[in-house]
Predict the structure.
Amino acid sequence: MSDEREWVTGLRAGDPTAFDAVFTAYRKRVYGYLVRMTRRADAAEDLLQETFLRLSQHATTLRDDTNLSAWLFTVAHRLVISWARARQVRAQLAGELPADEPAGPSLTPAEALSQSQAQLALERAIANLPEPFREVILLVGVEGMSPSEVADILGIRADLVRQRLARARAQLADHRSSP
Amino acid sequence: MSDDLENISEKLVALDVDPARAADIASVGRRGLGTHPPRRRTIEAVVVGAILLSFLVWALWKVFG
């Protein structure tokens, strides 16, 4: 039996070691996605906690063939949407930020940790992508998922994922080539 | 995957949550095992459904009654 199957079986049985194994295996991947989507470390930590809390709360109802990666990224994606909406409403009520705030001159957590100019340029280019493009780049390019898997996670058609991916790649290339 | 996306994850910064915070999150998750999410959403859905249904019944009664 594969690790993933064993973990799902353990989770269904309420086994804490199975939860720890899944947390260890997916923590960095989900956190990386959340940091790059929210561009804030504190928000990413809160959403990471919520993602894994939901996994533990739904553990006993998981299906045997659950794809944990897809499950976790689906939850993380939905949490990011809720977080962004709540933030937008708060900002509009306070009359502070524009509805779609661009990446400002301050460094995102990923940019701040960059160790070379090339890494900084890539992180900045990703941070500057519009949110729908950024998430397909992260899920396809970083997580190595197929457009159809990403379509299931985002709740959209696979051809729309391919379309967004093509536009994201073009914008990424533009950002990276500009000084 | 096309060339420009290949190995992109290796070119990005390796991100990880602070170890102490990771331990907290794992602990919260372990404690949550076997519990169920708050019933609030289910209750909200039932209440909204009941309101919509009663409105529909009232509208049908007004039209055909």
Remarks:
- Residues 68-94 of chain A form the longest helix (27 residues).
